Structure prediction request, 475 residues.
Amino acid sequence: MTNHFVDYRNADVFLIIGANPAEAHPMAMRSIGMAKGKGAKIIVVDSRFTKTAAKADIYAPLRPGTDITFLYGIMNYAIQNNLYHHEYVVNYTNASYLISPEYGFADGLFSGLEEKDGKLAYDSKKWDYQKEGENIKKDPNLQHPQCVFQIFKKHVSRYDLKTVSQVTGTPEDVLREVCTAYCATGKPGKAGNLIYAMGITQHSYGSQNVRATAMLQLLLGNIGIPGGGVNAQRGKSNVQGCCDMGMLYHLLTGYLKCPDAPKHPTLKDYLEVETPKTSYWSNTPKFLISMLKAWYGEKATKENDFCYDWLPKLDGKDHSHMPIFANMAEGKIKGLFAWGQNPAVGGPQAAAERKALEKLDWMVYIDVFENETAAFWKRPGVNPADIKTEIFMLPAAFSYEKEATITNSGRWVQFRWKAIEPPGKAKSDLWIADRIFKAIRQEYQTGGKFPAPILNMVWNYDLPGHDEPDLEKVA
Prediction:
């Protein structure tokens, strides 16, 4: 999300695609309404006619999964009708950069597709920029056939309004109305605000969907200006923290890549592979070593590579949500912590995921109430006696029943005081995590396969006289 909700009030046109802020993000919709009151137009692109669509100046229905085609259609319209922000594109994007002559696109495939170890993969070296020494060759006139702009122009030229209408199911006259209204922001003094949510991200090609939204905004010069931006509507206040704090299997804290055993056997290997020569991420060595020192304290020294060997390593396999449940269904996973999640409903194949849960030996469920995942064993058509999975439910405190910081959709970090005590035996997530770690470390006191990382982890969060860990130390 590039712009705050309050800044939405500066927009001239909203393109809301795969989002329903009128119901899901009322504070965002409040600012959208204020902008509309000042004359802003609202375009809603959605497979459903939502409450947000009811407030729109233009509603464009489309078939699920055709978002990229729709967005490419707008981009092609902007280029063909010279409605893109030329000055912005030349000076603030890579449109003028020249690409290697080896780059090409034909029959739906880019150049450089090769088979390696039985798998197809692209050799991206054939997509490199042309250089003179260390400098990238450019064409500020955007006319060279190998400049990014001309390659992009050719790529999206297939997406004329008739073709887009056939693919998306959106009436051609509605498409033209959308393109005319939104491309009007592709000039100085105008701002187009693109808003998306899970209607864009929750696809097997969700990343490509998001990239398409960014490409459209860059083409029209709608990034880095008041009222513009690519603005994801978050589903929960702390969802960004999932990435920031390293809660995804492939990331460590602060977006550092998790070491991969085949690629990064040593700290030296990791830093050589993952540290770019330029940009903010050229500081990767500082970030990683600082994290290792924070985790392992005095044990992390230069002589032992700051305990890099203690970090968990990936094994070169995909351990994201879907493969986890596929492995679970095959009996390869024995236990599961389901913490604040409901995969029995939110997963891509709910029935298959509920079935996979039956193959577990145990599951620990941590949430504020029992939902479908916790109760998968008593769903209709299932005999609980046939399910071997042992369920442990740990009741958690609601957000107003604990003290903590949150990150809101405007990326503001706010501290919330506890309003009321949690009911019954419910405890805060921090209390639960603290007690689980201490219990695990106690077990390792008597041995284990690899006790060093657990026994030497810095864990000094006790607050004398209090049951809860010290929030300030954790932060």
Summary: The mean pLDDT is 93.
